[in-house]
Design a protein that fits this description.
Helices cover 24% and strands 24% of the residues. The chain contains 14 helices and 32 strands.
Amino acid sequence: MEWRNMLQHQKKKKERCIAIGIAFLMVFLSVFPQPSAALAAGKKAKPTLNKANATLKVGKKLQLKVIHVKKNLVKKITFTSDKKKIASVNKKGLVTAHKAGSTVVRCKVKLKNGKKYKSRCKIKVIQKETTKPSDDPEEAVSPAPGASMPVQSAAPEATAGTGSEATEAPPAPAVTDDVTPDPAATENASPAPTGYPERTPYPEETPGVLHDSKNGIPTVDNGVMREDMTAFHILDRMGIGINLGNTMESCGAWIDPSSVTNYETAWGAPVTTQEMFAGMKKAGFSSVRIPVGWSNMMSDDGNYTIHEDYLDRVETIMNYAFSEGLYVIVNIHFDGGWWARFGSQDAEEREQAMVKYKAIWQQIADRYEEYSDHLIFESANEELGSRLDSTDDYANSGYYEGNKEELYRLTNEINQTFVDIVRASGGNNAKRHLLIAGYDTNIGKTCNGAYKMPEDTIPDHLMVSVHYYSPAPYCLAEDPDNSWGFQDTWGTAEDIGAMKAELLSMKLNFADRGIPVVIGEYGVANARDPDSGYQRKKGKEEFIRNLCKYTLENGMCPVLWDTPGGTYNRKTCQIENELDAQVFLEMKELAELTPEYVPVPSKKELSWNGSISYSGWIPSKMVPGEEFDFILSSAGGCYALSGVDWSVFESPTLKLHCEGVSGNIGYKIALVTAGNEWWSYLENSDVKIQGNWNTSEDIIVDLSPLQLKDKDTFYLAFNASDFAGDFTLQITE
């Protein structure tokens, strides 16, 4: 073993030499200051922030600056905060701490030579050292301990989806449902009836006592309609939601009508259990939408009486959700497509459609009147709009011949009827928060000025519902050979910009005008693979993250469309994919940190910025910038400019500025008052303003010839050959 001793001797000798060298180097560095790492390596330092990490107390400020760059070389600097409610940052880099938590302030530097640099500063916000009692009465309520509702026996298993598992995701942040018991509440609470476990109380509420509803259904709901709860307040507590899809709305003439269970399981769902809702809560959801087909067990004698068993089953499922403190949305869903009878060629059938609609809502309102503001009624699903006249749903329909003006009028009438019926039923329904279905639940059509929110007897208690499956080839198409397109990846800057632009339209037209928005459905279909069944589309988690983040921060509640074998596994009662599970927990945290949305007042100076390109009159590409105040969307051969409250402008003008383009461009501006909204070019008869623009200079166009009002959309077209540039459009007085 002499070779080992020799190696040990050489190792010790080497260690002594290294130690002496390090000691010498430390003395040298202490005497002679050294250049930065970048300079020492012979490299020029990149533009970056003066701080990479900072801790601030609530109310304190921090000035961030860009270093290692000369001001005369900078074209643009932008600052953003991931969580503005924790710490915001203005255009000059001044950070203001608002609420305890953590966020990241990001900085983008664009130089005049075209180079771009990114840097960031992690901000931790802590509470002030001194504290005082909360002024919020809701924060002063201590929740009492409790357990879930009785668990129904498991049902036959649903067929699971075959989507492939994604690669391993980072571990999810710790989430706990633990609460600190309030001794007083526990001591004074009435004992639960024999056979019932203790309840799980709602947060921020005085606990109720587990009891039977007036219909004999076990419930933990306390029946309280909180006086100070506006629709925005409710929406804030709804957080992120999930649909109990393909369950109580399942329908079909082939289903045995002898029991509710036959309908509940007809489309592949297992019988719904308490455990499913407990899993939803744990996964991060705070609300659930329960689609219902009420015609399934209904009398055919013209009275449209819903079977007692069906009403009982829906109520039982509602109470599974209430037991977990979830908010519940109940609607009338597709329901066999009878909605198309509103457009029947037969006048009596058209009248009976309204009779049936009224009968359904009168029964729902009367049956569930006793429940608290955790229950929300929704007027319809996707059927209010063009499907009221659909010959696909009912062959004898088509009375309105697609007349959009009449279909908008009919949609508005049905929604108003819904509000009137619920309010007239009295009790808690006089103050219940109601969700109003948009036109086809389509964002663009719902933002049309022809769509009107109903009048209500109580202020601030209405919300509007739309669905988001855009782009359709990504969200809906399963087959790579799909005739109207297929997309299996998502997440480019263009994808994200298009999403924000569409959702911004709801923010501008509704949330900022005092009407909260519920994205009642969104989701991403798997891709069909002939060899391996179904494959998860790339970017699904980023689609969910971006949609939820933007909606939560802008007065909207996102509700995932989910069915058996989908995102949430009803057998294991958890999110199937680890990437999705991580995102939903992140969004739960974001929802809890984001305060109630406050509508933004209309401004007289609005802008849109981003890059666009053209070929001929046809816009070939558009990538919105990070911040914009109105919608600029591609509309066939031109752009549609929407989302502006024209009532605040007396003499509006359009200012155009571009970079990276030279030469003259012809332009046309039109106000299309009728005709096909998907037209591909501007008819000369619609053009109100036109001219030429020397792109080396800004141009200001007087918009008064358009006589814009309310939420009018106007259309802008350019004539240029193969160009691309950075554009800024401004609406000013």
